Amino acid sequence: MQRMGFVLGIRPEAIAEYKRIHAAVWPEVLDTIAKCNIRNYTIFLREPENLLFACFEYHGTDYAADMARMAADPKTREWWAVCSPMQAPLATRKEGEWWAGMEEVFHVD
Fold it and tell me: What is the pTM of this model?
């Protein structure tokens, strides 16, 4: 298992809608997340900085393949099309990233 952390901006005017849609994530999207070996997935919001922090556990053996599988799922792509305009990717993210990856520097169970 690998713990993953990501950060992304959110447009202030979209926060209420982002919260609303995430209170009832589409079942097909949740199913794809599970099929892609992601567990214990949480998204946190930090205001007034308007940052989203996502963390999850990856339980698979080929993260790149699982993320490609997720990106190929039509319902997930539809979900992303709804969410993406509300988000504000960090200018400092790596090429090809939407959510900026983070380095784990501490963990305790």
Answer: 0.91
